[in-house]
Amino acid sequence: MDSAVEQARAPTVAANHALKAVFRMSADRAYAVMMTAHRKGACVIAVYTRDVAETKAKEATDLGKQNGYPLFFTTEPET
Description:
Layout: H1 3-23, H2 27-40, H3 50-66
């Protein structure tokens, strides 16, 4: 595969990996969530208690950083 194509695809692979590893999503669900976040700029991934949500957001953000990608997961209170 062309290295430019691989470089363009790498962030999506990293996002997919974080969603599957940290949030235990299937490949199809992770792809759908990733594409929603890409199109809308943000996406609700799941609803957890505050402590669990903050831990998972940090784990997923750190996983992206470890692989060299600026993935950023945040938490918000339910409204």
